[in-house]
Write a structure and sequence with these properties.
Blueprint lengths: L2 H13 L5 E10 L11 E2 L1 E14 L4 E6 L4 E6 L10 H14 L7 E7 L9 H17 L5 H16 L6 H8 L4 E6 L5 E5 L4 E7 L8 H17 L10 H7 L5 H26 L2 H17 L6 H11 L4 E7 L6 E7 L3 H16 L4 E5 L6 E3 L7
Parallel strand pairs: 4-6
Antiparallel strand pairs: 1-3, 1-13, 2-7, 3-6, 4-5, 7-8, 9-11, 9-12, 10-11
Helix pairs in contact: 2-3, 2-4, 3-4, 3-5, 4-5, 6-8, 8-9, 10-11
């Protein structure tokens, strides 16, 4: 049974009638461009065919009432008396409602059932998918205009200020504005986007190490401070403004650690733009080479990989059908991503999982992914509005 069918049937059991609407919002995987977002740089994620689904109908009393099948919990809150509570999935729904109302939108209540298949804690943005699904539901029942960039910024504000997670804009943007069969180049300064086609005959495979990053806030803040110090040394507003040539000419002025952190960001921005050019040409070999180089830079210069991630990347790269592989996400655990020949993808997935099990004695999950559209409202026939 699909996730969509599951939420529809659960809604019918709970309320005795079919839902008025079904909405979905996807998770994402970042192909290249890691730790560049908070340096005003470039990222290249794609929305994946794993999503949060909500079956719902409007209410006329200003209350939101939602059952989560995955957590086996129910939440309800009044839109005119929103209050923060302990951390949990419901806070993302409340945060989105708060942010939309702060922006001046008049919201109508709704009730529904939600479920999803975006793995939690794997670095595939289950939280952004939940935020965008809630926003799509609220916009649909409240007859609000759907402007992906604007809604993404409001969902980011919800996570930053209501939930308290200081994330960048990438996750919300790709969940809002993803395009089938394409990745999305995002300029994290201007928020301009460009849909870029995947090379013909290739498939993106997400390789979940089944390890989860621990408390890395202090490391994240340290990396961010090091990047800001490097930008200041170059007299730049952000490392995005430093070219590879400028970096190489003045790298000796930085201490060793700051130099390595800056080198990753500067070269990663260049790799991301080069990856876009390769994809426009349909050049899977060059895209894979850039992904490989990205992992080396993240491992050695930015130092955010892990033994498990390195082992998974090694297993993927051993396969002749793999063009390239790298860790994806914040690091210290979670997932790697590989670009693979479509004709061999099933066998690739089996062999890499076996290799990783032998190397780490850990059973991994492998997700063969298709690039999908961003958040949408779905009719009963499956046609998006």
């Amino acid at each position: 049974m699909s996730i969509r069918e599951r939420v529809v049937q659960a809604f019918e059991r709970r309320f005795g009638v079919p839902p008025s609407l079904v909405v979905r919002a996807p998770g994402r995987v970042n192909l290249i461009g890691e730790h560049t977002d908070y340096n005003d740089g470039f990222v290249l994620p794609m929305a994946i065919d794993r999503a949060i689904w909500i079956a719902l109908r409007p209410r006329d009393d200003g209350v939101v009432h939602v059952q989560s099948l995955d957590f086996d919990e129910t939440t309800h809150f009044a839109l005119d008396t929103l209050e923060k509570a302990d951390a949990g999935w419901a806070e993302y729904l409340k945060g989105v409602a708060w942010s939309l109302q702060e922006a001046g939108y008049a919201l109508q209540g709704w009730e529904g059932v939600l479920s999803g298949d975006v793995p939690r804690g794997a670095g595939l943005s289950s939280s952004a998918a939940l935020e965008l699904a809630a926003a799509r539901a609220s916009a649909a029942v409240s007859d609000l205009p759907w402007v992906p960039k604007s809604i993404a910024k409001l969902c980011q504000r919800a996570e930053n200020e209501w939930v308290g997670m200081r994330c960048g804009i990438m996750d919300q943007m790709i969940s809002a504005a993803g395009q089938v069969d394409h990745a999305l180049l995002i300029d994290c300064r201007s928020l301009d986007t460009e849909a870029v086609p995947l090379p013909p005959g290739t498939v993106v495979v997400v390789l979940d190490t089944a390890t989860r990053r621990g408390l890395v806030d202090s490391v994240y803040n340290q990396r961010r401070a090091q990047c800001e110090a490097a930008a200041e040394a170059f007299g730049a507003g952000a490392l995005r403004d430093v070219s590879v040539q400028q970096f190489e000419a003045r790298a000796h002025e930085l201490d060793e650690v700051t130099r390595r952190r800056a080198r990753h960001v500067v070269t990663e921005n260049a790799r991301t733009l080069a990856a876009v050019e390769a994809m426009r040409r349909g050049d899977a070999v060059e895209l894979g080479r850039l992904m490989d180089a990205s992992h080396v830079s993240l491992r050695d210069d930015f130092e955010v990989s892990s033994d498990a991630l390195d082992a998974m990347v090694v297993c993927a790269r051993r396969e002749k059908s793999c063009y390239g592989a790298r860790m994806t996400g914040a690091g210290f655990g979670g997932c790697a991503v590989a670009l693979v020949e479509a004709a061999d993808v099933d066998a690739f997935a089996q062999r890499v999982a076996a290799c990783y099990l032998e190397s780490q004695d850990i059973v991994s999950d492998v997700y063969i992914c298709r690039a999908t559209d961003g958040a949408q409202v779905v009719k009963g026939s499956g046609v998006s509005l």
